[in-house]
Every structure is written in structure tokens, then in C-alpha cells.
Amino acid sequence: MTTEDLRVDPTLGTRVHVVGARQGRPNLPSTGCPFCVGGVEAPEPYDVRWFPNRWPAMPDERCEVVLYTSDHDATFASLGVDGARRVIDLWAERTLELGSRDDVDYVLVFENRGPEIGATITHPHGQIYAFDHVPERQLALLRAGWKPDADPGDRLVAASDGWTVSVPVASPFPIALSISPDAQVSDLASLHDDARTALASVLVDTFTRLDALYDRALPYMMWLHQRPTDGGDWSQAWFNIDIVSPWRAAGIQRFIAAAEVATGEYFNPVVPEDLAAALRSL
């Protein structure tokens, strides 16, 4: 059981969740994959599946794991449109369920892939954290009225069926992509049937390009920005997805170093327009 120990820096206001219980979680499965059929987290056959995280970062079953497929060696790209659509539908279902709780103000869907990111299980999966507040970064984006670039120009990667993939103008990560609907939609649950299928196609295409960029599986982080579920008026909310990777070249990680951590100002060696051109060409 996880107890809540949310601390706030008295000067900067930085929120830190102190979760000592997570020190006891295993770094690697000791016997087999727990996410494969027959494993401890997936005793029965499945297409997609969710379950409460055994080592949650927050209490009250507000942390969940989402399994994308029973195929241990799959990638998001290899799911195909139908498989990706099943994942999107499950994301939307869990967002609605968790967001309906009185103690949940924001539902964050995210994924970490690769040991460079800290993922210890290679089986395709993501996670969901249901916060009892709106996190500061999401709050800042909402207050700023974030919306996608009307014309990303040379930073455009792809546009298809009402969705646009582009490289942000200024990201601290060497590889960064933003995926957004051309027409404003506030969250996953608000996406109609055709829009979800189109998003599935765009995600498969995007991850295919990313894995082809260096001709090897790219480590990445992905997170979804959605409307808060605190009952507030968030009419400006515009659903979008961020995908970032720490690699600045094939197998070479860019580390965020002292001057950047100290100042909150970053030095990115990858030119956004060059990255977009490389991904467009794939």
C-alpha cells in the first residue's frame, strides 16, 4: 500500500512525490515476463489489458498499467491500425473511469520504452497516473491556451486524415514530436470513431518512422495531454500527444547536464527542421 507523501518546495513550489515503497520493486522479472499470457499480471489470454500497478507512485489505485498486446516482441508500430485502435479505446475507457472519481483531477496516459528511459520490462505497455491535482506543466499549457502550429513549415513531418505530426520549435529533447488533431478536441473520450481510427494510423506511421530513423528500436517517452477532470471550465483544452527521445544519434544519448538542470535552459544539438526532414523522408 502506498501512502501519500506529496511535498512542495517552499521556494520554487516544485511538487515531489516521496514514494519510499517503490524502492522495493524489482528491476527485472526474476522468472519470465509478468505481462505475457500466463504471467502474474496476465493469467488469461487477452488483446489489450489493464490492471492496478503493484508498485504505485500514488495511493488509492490511481496508478495503472496498460498492456498493448499479448505479443511480447511487438512494438507500437507492429500493432497495426486495428491493434493501435484497441489501445486507444482502452486509454479512453480508463480516462473516463478514473476521471469520474472525486479524488482525480487529471488523468495522464504515458509510456516509457527502452532501458535508456528506465523501462525494465520490454513487453509493450504503458501506464496511467490519475492525479488529485492538475500537474504544473499541464496547468501552464492550459493557461497559455496551447494549440498546434497552424503552419509548422519545415518542421512538418506528416499530415493525414485530420491529424498533424510536427517537430516542436524548441524542445529540450533532441528528438521530439507533437501529434494533434487539426480541429479542437479536448480529450480521448471526445474523439469520434473515425478520428480514433485515424489517430491509430498516425501513431503506427509515426512509430514506424521513429524506429527507421536510426534503423533500430528507438527509446522514447510518450504522454497524452487531455482536459482536466476537476469539473472546471477548460474550454481551451486541445488534446495532443508528445513523443520524445534522449538519443541525439544512433545509440548515443544526450544527457541533460548541470548548466541545464541548474538554469532550466537547454542546449539541443539537433536542429528541429533537420529532424523533420529526416522523418519526412522515411
List keywords for this structure.
282 residues; alpha+beta; HIT family, subunit A; 9-stranded antiparallel sheet; two-stranded antiparallel ribbon; 23% helix; globular
Strand order of the largest sheet: 3-4-6-5-10-11-9-8-7
Q: What is the overall shape?
A: globular
CATH superfamily: HIT-like
How would a crystallographer describe the biggest sheet? 9 strands, antiparallel
CATH topology: HIT family, subunit A
- How much beta, percentage-wise? 15-25%
Short description:
The chain is built from 5 helices and 13 strands.
Structural overview:
This protein is of the alpha+beta class and 282 residues long. It has a single domain, classed as HIT-like (HIT family, subunit A, 2-Layer Sandwich), CATH 3.30.428.10. Helix content is 23%, strand content 22%. The protein has 5 helices and 13 strands. It has helices spanning 80-99, 136-143, 193-213, 258-263, 272-280, and strands spanning 6-8, 15-17, 49-52, 63-67, 106-113, 125-131, 156-160, 163-166, 175-181, 220-225, 240-245, 247-249, 252-253. It has a 9-stranded antiparallel β-sheet. Strand 8 (163-166) and strand 9 (175-181) form a beta hairpin. Helix 1 crosses helix 3 (193-213). The longest helix has 21 residues, at 193-213. The model has no long low-confidence stretch (mean pLDDT 95).
